[in-house]
Amino acid sequence: PPSCLRPQVRPCLAHAVSVWACDVRVESVEGEPVWCVSVSVRVCCVTGGSAGASGGESRSPDKCSQKVVSIRIDRRKTLSDLKKLLEQHVGVASTQFKVYRVYTQSQEYEMTRLGDSLQTLPSDTKLVVKLGRALKQGEFRIKIFLLDIRSVDYSKHLLDTIVAKGMTVQQFKEQIVSEIEEDPSLDYHLSVDKLRLRKKTWRSAGTIYLDSQVFEKDIHVFANFEMYLEPLKGGEKMLAATSIQVYVRRWRPSTHTVDLTDEVVVTESTPDHLRKKISEISDVPQERVDIAKAYGSFPCEMSVLDINEDLEWNPSVTNINSIPFSIYDDGCVVYYRDAEEKAEVLSAERKNELQKQENTRLSKYNSTPTYSSSSYRVKERALKIYVADDEAVKEAES
C-alpha cells in the first residue's frame, strides 16, 4: 500500500493499530454489479463505463474482470479513507458508490458517516459495495413500494430514492413521479395530485403523510425506511393529521360475497361516526350499518365462511380506539353489512365448494396456504352432567 496508508506502529500503540485487511469480490445480484467485501482478497477491476455526473444512480460498467489484490488500511482510518482506497478497484469516484454493512440475517445497512473510524467494525465484518450515488449529509435512502389494496399482489417494490432533510411530502412525491417517468423500465402513469405517501411497516399500510409535512421535522426517517406510494381514485380525502383513514369492505351474507375494498376518513372516534361515513359511500342507511374489525395481518383477507360468524359485529363500545376495534392509526380494515340482509343458507355441497375456492384464494396472499377457520371446527356434542348420589339416573341413561 502507499506509504501514507501504512500503519505507523509505535510500541505504546501496538495494541491499538492492528491492520485491517478487506477483500472485495464482484458478484451479480439480479443483474446489478455488487462488490462483496469479506476476508478473502478478490477485487473486481472495472474497465470502461462511467458514473452519472448529475448525481443520479450510476450506470453499470461496461466490463468487469477479477484479480487478486491486497488492501490494507489502518484501523484508525475512516470510512471516507476506505472509500477513497476502493476507488481504483471499483472504477468510479467514491461519491458514486455505496458501502453497506451486512448483518447476520443478510440485512444490509448503508454506511453513510464518512468520519466514522474503522475501529467500530468487528474483524469478521462483511461489506457490500454497490454502484449508485452515495448519500450526502442530511439525506436518507428510502425504499418505495406501490400499494394497490384491491390487488392480490398488493405490494410491489417500485424504486429506491433519496429524500433530503427539510423536503416536504409534496416535493418528494413530485421527485418520485419524475424518477418514474425517466425510468423506461417503470411503465406507470401517475399524477402527483392522485397519489399519497404512507408509512410501511413490514407489509402493513400505516400513517398517511400530508403534503405539507416536512421530513426530519414532522417525519423522522431511519435506516431501511420504507414507504407506500398509493394511487387514489380521486383527490386526497385525508386533510388533517387528527383524522383516521379506514379501509372498508361490504360483506353480503345473502350471496356470501365481499365487494371491492373502499375507504373512509373519520374525523370523530365513535362507531356511529364510522357508520355515518360508511353510509355515505354505500346505499345502506346509517341505522342499518353493522360493523366489525377484520382479523389477521394486512390486508386482512378472510374466508367468506368465517366473516358472518367469527367477527364481533357491533361491539358495545363508545370509541373505535377501544377493543375489539383498536383503531389508532390509518390503514385498519373494517367489514360492514346491511343489518336487514338475510344470510344465505348453505347446503353441504355449496359449503364444500366455497371452502375449496376460499382456500385457493387466500393462499395467494401468503407464502403458505391460509385456510378458513371453519376447516378445523369440531362438531359439538351435548354434555351430560350427573349428580354424584343420583345412581338411578345414571343407570337409566345407560
Mean pLDDT: 79
Shape: elongated
How many individual helices?
Answer: 6
Question: Secondary-structure element sequence?
Answer: EEEEEHEEEEEHEEEEEEHEHEHH
- Radius of gyration of CA atoms, rounded to a whole number: 29 Å
Fraction of helical residues: 10-25%
- The low-pLDDT segments are 1-69, 367-372, 374-379
DSSP strand content: 25-35%
Q: Which structural class should the secondary elements be placed in?
A: alpha+beta
Trace the largest sheet across and list its strands: 5-1-2-8-6-7
Number of strands: 18
Separation of termini? 95 Å
Biggest sheet descriptor: 6 strands, antiparallel
Explain what you see:
This protein has 398 residues and is an alpha+beta fold. It has six helices and 18 strands. A six-stranded antiparallel sheet has the order 5-1-2-8-6-7, covered by helices on one side. Strands 10-9-13-11-12 form a five-stranded mixed sheet. Strands 14, 15, 16, 17 and 18 form a five-stranded mixed sheet that branches.
Which features characterize this protein?
16% helix; 398 residues; 6-stranded antiparallel beta sheet; disordered N terminus; alpha+beta; 5-stranded mixed beta sheet; 28% strand
What's this entry about, in short?
With 398 residues, this protein is an alpha+beta fold. Helices cover 16% and strands 28% of the residues. The strands form four sheets. It has a six-stranded antiparallel β-sheet with strand order 5-1-2-8-6-7, covered by helices on one side. Strands 10-9-13-11-12 form a five-stranded mixed β-sheet. Strands 14, 15, 16, 17 and 18 form a five-stranded mixed β-sheet that branches.
